[in-house]
## 1
Amino acid sequence: MRQFNAAPLELKKQFKESFQTHPFEAGWASEAIFFIMVEDVSGSNSQLLAEVEISHDGFNWAYEGSVVGPIYEKGLNFIKVSCFGNWLRLNCKIEGDNPGFKLLVQLALKE
Amino acid sequence: MQNSFSPHIFSRFQPLKNTLVYDCFSNGQNGWMALMPNFTQAPDFDTRKSVVTKDQWPPVMLSSATYRYPGTHGALSGNYSLKISTRPIAGRYEDIPVPGSMGHAIKRMTFHNPNRKRLQFEMWFSYTAEQDRVRGDEDLAGLSENAIRAFGAGFDIQERGNRYFSGIRYLNSINGDITKKWQYISASEVTDNQWAFGTDGDWCKRGVDPQWYGQRYADGSHDGFKDLPNGSQQLCYNETDCKINWIYFRFLIDTQKREYVEFQAQDRVFDMEGIPITLIDPYKRIDGLLNPLIWVENDANRTVFLYVDSVLISQD
């Protein structure tokens, strides 16, 4: 039977600035999906862009090339990733006038 | 992921008669997950207000222990261990634990043997700090052992009329000063208000969740823990943060007497016979609860890691 695990990276947290998700080791899995549930948006012209980053050590990061957004409204978004080695995170860029995003971010891994 | 189960692995454990759990993390995550608040409140499955923010303890993960210089360290039984980590943010020892300064894993089960007596927790683990920065130009400025404040393991139990926590933690560093001693879970005679850092109405009762509740004091004492007699021990922490050595950990309690029995770390055994466990009035709905816990806490604005190769829980 295949292995699967969904890890909660952020839980209903209010973000007003750009941030990166907690570095995650995913070397056992060959498929990854970042789910980004936007539960609320505040401010004006608020937008969120999420970029996948990979790393060899969990501290130094490089842009992987996968991206979702810009996101303007409530709802579920996702990015599929493969060929990522071990370390994965999302670089989430927030822009706007007094922007706010309430987010639930989950990383789904499958082997 | 290969199946690393093999009977010979039990020779490095000392199980009691009935094995309840044998989790080798090269086989998968085995139901261990991060601890988070209860999503029970209106309007949108929100959480009750609490003085301790528990939704920032990072997710637990299967780790190959991969570092910048040596690459993959792997684990003891295979390639993967359960990794519990913090975020790179810490408060002072005597403050309320700040969001993200701890990591916590939990597994959830219930008792099944009506005649249960002793209960034992065993694991093989290791710990280290992230090699993120060098402090200055002094000797060993790139070794960050004192960024790890504490780690531990225990049980959250409710059975036969009481809720009670038991467990052991290694107090490694207090505000940067290496300490290296064992403490066991035991609540001081304080009120629920004092237990929750002077907060009225926090949902937690005295004795519950000593991992983060209970006032801490600058000398290392704690309203949720007491020093283990003769409990100083220099655990094996290798010469650089990217070399990890696997360490044996075992503690044994008597669930009938509500007492500790024994604790072991590496090759040293500590007698705990007769040390009482703090008893708490039962909570609603959770009779029979048996939740093993493992946690880690940082002592500097740096991510620290606790790796668990395998866990064996047994009873007689």
## 2
Amino acid sequence: MGEPLIQIKGVTHAYQTAAGPLPVLRDLNLSVPEGEFCAVVGPSGCGKSTLTRLIAGLMKPDTGEVWLHGERVTSPRKTVGMAFQNPVLLEWRSILDNVILPLEIVAPGMSRRDRVARAEELLSLVGLVGFEDKRPSELSGGMRQRASLCRSIVHKPDVLIMDEPFGALDAFTREDLWQTMHDLRMNEPFTALLITHDLRESVFLADEVVVLSGRPATAQHVLKVGLPQDRTLDVLYEPRAVDMLHVLRDQIQIAQGRTPGKDAA
Amino acid sequence: MMVLRKIAVPVIAMIVFLAGWEALVWVNGWPNYKMASPSDLWPAFWKYRWLFLEYGWQTLWRTVAGLMLAVVFGVALGMVMGFSRTMRDALYPLLVGFNAIPKATVVPIIALMFVGHHDMNTILIAFMISFFPIAVSVSIGLSTLEPEYRDILRSLGASKLTIFRKIALPKTLPEFFGALKVSVTLAFIGTNLMEIVEPHGKGLGHLFDSGKISADYPLMFAVLIALAFLGIVLFYIVVALERIFAGWAEREHS
């Protein structure tokens, strides 16, 4: 672990709305070392999605700096992968061709055969062998999200940015996908930033969980997960994981402006 | 079996329609100047078969030319309006106003503007009446593209042109073809409007007009049927193109 791969230094950002500026991020600092998995949790509407767009270079912060790999981010770069809550698969392409899409942009010289081989490799990791020629509409929500994850890492990005990728799935499918995510990470080294609302998800997947405060958001609490790399879902029922979930829950309540431990009716 | 069903069902429907029409005229004892019956039409078609071929061709190619102009202009306008909010705000009222003008009133103006250029006049009217749905659907298709779709490629540093080619264009195709089906029929209306309102001795509209002048009522009805036939042919050509280029948008029925 050398210098942090993702570095966010004193970022402040506001949206211009009809009712005047709406500050969403305030003096946010965050750093993720190379190879680490960072989960970001926080109350609804606290600017989490803004954060993903800033890191991807799709937007520039009003003040502050975003650094990736020791370079300041001012525009999009090819070394980033993105996944969203909506799998946004292209309906006119087969699953295989959807996964290949980023390679057409990032590696225009790569042969079709190499692209297909790379896509097949990932599809087999997520259990989609045999679905290469299907249209996205022929797949279930969970399968679409698996394909979307393959697409987001097919070009071997150093940074994978995910904005609630499992948010729209049912609880069982979601847990399956967590396991898939884990398997992917064992096979494909990448640094990840995951935006989520699900505290169990954050503890299971991440090495570090950052709790953002309410809007305008700043890093309120950082939790080092410290569970073994090779984990299964059982780990979530162990006392150390339960303790972490309690800490996160208290922090979320603080972020929401409530008193921790006292549930509002 | 499926193919047979696909052909048989519309053919049977057409026979039932013609039989009903024939019966209606026969039961009421209408003379052919009130309502010609299908059995009156065959002689009219046969008598003027060469004129039908010649004029039908004139109407057809001018309609297709007008439609192609409408596609080129409509798509370009739709793109400008789809990508730029300012242009959309600026052009929408103009476009709606232009579309609201009944094209029958534009016919004499165009005819005066380009006296003697009958082909061009006719193509212009067909174009003017049919580009609106294309422009609107393309602009809506492009402007309602979810930002995530753009972000998949934008986050990789893809150029605007690449994003348009790989995402925006294919995603808008179903809307485009939907509009094209409407525009095909409109273009026909445009061509015939010019041919009938400002007859210049060309096209099925002119044949209709001469039937009116010579009180040949079966001929007038025969022209209507010929127009309907051409309309059906063009419509299904568009449907075939849609299958090829935007067939993915069709969900398979089980």
